[in-house]
């Protein structure tokens, strides 16, 4: 009879212990899901900004006065890029093509552009030309890699 009473006392403890482990696991899972959701912010440049339009600026040039740049991003995912090497060119050569957004929805890649960097970070009323590795240009000339929206 003493064995049965001991068994009856242990069984509820077993269920209580299992239940608290499930709650801890459930809490851990929900914390993980919350962190995962936070890292995948649904608001990004692609779906939250009025990014379509024309952006202009003068970017640095190693062997000229600057590169007069005009980039038009169209809602149909096409682009027009015009560049003028100031002091060397008298016209604005044009590159046309399509672009795609990166997985974060914050950068665009100009497809098929062979000469020069083809990645831009999209901000509010600006696009920032990125280096060949897709990283932001830093240093004293960093602000010269920003094109401002004109229309």
TrEMBL record:
Region Disordered, residue ranges: 23-46
Superkingdom per UniProt: Bacteria
Name under which the protein is recorded: Copper resistance protein NlpE
Lineage: Bacteria, Pseudomonadati, Bacteroidota, Sphingobacteriia, Sphingobacteriales
A family per Pfam: NlpE
Basic and acidic residues composition-biased segments: 30-43
